[in-house]
């Protein structure tokens, strides 16, 4: 098993409520590999008028 550490940027749309955020993040990370561990390391407000936020995520994946 090979482990890899990645930093992943993800847009958090307003339509995704806080209680569904974990499912949203894991679903996007699983496209890149098997998720071992992940954490949100930064949240920034977007400049656009849609109110999305930018998440910076650090994850460990296995391939």
Description:
The termini are close together. The mean pLDDT is 92. It is elongated and about 45 Å long. It has one helix and three strands; from the N terminus they run βαββ. It has one helix at residues 21-29, and strands at 3-12, 34-45, 53-62. Strands 1-3-2 form a three-stranded antiparallel beta sheet, with helices on one face. It is mainly β. A hairpin with a 7-residue loop joins strand 2 (34-45) and strand 3.
Explain the layout of strands and helices.
Blueprint: E1 3-12, H1 21-29, E2 34-45, E3 53-62
Antiparallel strand pairs: 1-3, 2-3
Can you give keywords for this protein?
single chain, 63 residues, mainly beta, 3-stranded antiparallel sheet, 1 helix, 3 strands
Point out poorly predicted stretches.
none
Instruction: Please give the number of β-strands.
Output: 3
Query: Please, how many helices?
Result: 1
From the alpha carbons, calculate the radius of gyration and give it in angstroms: 12 Å
Label the overall shape.
elongated
Portion in beta strands? over 45%
* Through-space gap between termini: 7 Å
Q: Topology as H/E string?
A: EHEE
Give the proportion of residues in helices: 10-25%
Outline the biggest β-sheet: 3 strands, antiparallel
Strand order of the largest sheet: 1-3-2
Task: State the secondary-structure class.
Answer: mainly beta
Mean pLDDT: 92
